[in-house]
């Protein structure tokens, strides 16, 4: 019975305080906030698609204040250059020496606003820092602070003057989250809070505590049957016919990479931890499948012609491949 335990009360209390502090400012968007916390705990990055004015920037900025983290925002524009992100070497005439000026990517939470407005050369400047968590300037490597989270936003309604994201970069985002409009009740509360007295965010945790939460997240138990479920889902995006989805093959040009399988496993851990458990359940992974796969499945022209979306393709795969049945191994130990 000792192997089957709930989460440490202090850990649950700390995460509850962080979420409470953010929700004092941000109204609604519970699912989006949950995904931000999942990405933070799982040390992944987030791609967010939504129209302007849905509190995307406010959510990340408030979270940074709650955990005493450094927050930076970069507005991507067509005239941006890579040095504007990562930094550059500057010549000092007084000392006749070069010095390194670090760019805004050196922060705990980095918001890349409207990332698809910058050309591929600038977008690719984020590749190294997202994967390796370091930047190389003039042959010298500089580590970014830990913890480190990149959240990039896309505007789905304005496509003029935008550039498609390179597949290599899209794959480095753990999840792509779609943010929708608030309900009428939520919008009423939003207006009341914005037009009312200012709410100051109180720091309730530190970056060191957040790093400890990330380390604890890696200890959450994931049953092998759940990992196998993730492998089957991702494999079905590459070879649908091998999983009884012969008709789906003509709609998919490229499937998801192994990063998707890793993202599903790590995401299920983080979501289980957020929900107060030290073990992942099938519903934790099922909830994250669309967010982890929707940006990694490249549809064919035939799929686009028939009006299919990545979410519909992922839904067909999920309908064909059922999640593992309970009980899981931790429940068998308890029995």
UniProtKB/TrEMBL annotation:
It holds the Pfam family AAA_lid_2. Residues 252-317 form the ChlI/MoxR AAA lid domain. InterPro entries: ATPase_AAA-3 (IPR011703), CbbQ/NirQ/NorQ/GpvN (IPR050764), ChlI/MoxR_AAA_lid (IPR041628), P-loop_NTPase (IPR027417). Residues 45-175 form the ATPase AAA-3 domain. Signal peptide: none annotated. It comes from the Bacteria. This is AAA family ATPase. It comes from Hydrogenophaga atypica. The lineage of its organism: Bacteria, Pseudomonadati, Pseudomonadota, Betaproteobacteria, Burkholderiales.
């Amino acid at each position: 019975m000792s192997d089957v335990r709930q989460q440490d009360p202090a850990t649950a209390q700390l995460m509850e305080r962080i979420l409470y502090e953010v929700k004092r400012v941000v109204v609604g968007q519970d699912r989006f906030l949950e995904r931000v916390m999942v990405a933070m705990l799982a040390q992944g990055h987030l791609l967010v698609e939504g129209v302007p004015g849905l509190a995307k920037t406010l959510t990340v900025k408030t979270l940074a204040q709650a955990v005493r983290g450094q927050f930076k925002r970069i507005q991507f524009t067509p005239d941006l250059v890579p040095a504007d992100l990562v930094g550059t070497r500057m010549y000092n005439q007084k000392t006749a020496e070069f010095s390194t000026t670090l760019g805004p990517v050196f922060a705990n939470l980095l918001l890349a606003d409207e990332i698809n407005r910058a050309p591929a050369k600038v977008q690719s400047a984020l590749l190294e820092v997202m994967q390796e968590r370091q930047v190389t300037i003039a042959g010298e490597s500089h580590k970014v602070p830990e913890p480190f989270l990149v959240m990039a936003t896309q505007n789905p309604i304005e496509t003029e003057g935008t550039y498609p994201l390179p597949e290599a970069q899209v794959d480095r985002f753990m999840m792509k989250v779609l943010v929708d409009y608030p309900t009428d009740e939520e919008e009423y509360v939003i207006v009341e809070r914005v037009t009312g007295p200012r709410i100051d965010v109180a720091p309730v945790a530190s970056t060191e505590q957040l790093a400890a939460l990330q380390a604890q997240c890696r200890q959450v138990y994931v049953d092998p049957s759940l990992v196998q479920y993730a492998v089957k889902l991702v494999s079905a995006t590459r070879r649908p016919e091998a999983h009884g989805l012969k008709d789906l093959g003509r709609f998919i040009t490229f499937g998801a990479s192994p990063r998707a399988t890793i993202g599903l496993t790590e995401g299920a851990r983080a979501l289980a931890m957020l929900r107060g458990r030290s073990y992942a359940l099938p519903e934790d992974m099922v909830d994250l499948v669309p967010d982890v796969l929707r940006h990694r499945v490249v549809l064919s022209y035939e799929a686009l012609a028939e009006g299919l979306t990545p979410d519909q393709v992922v839904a067909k795969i999920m309908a064909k491949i059922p999640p593992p049945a309970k009980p899981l191994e931790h429940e068998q130990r308890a029995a």
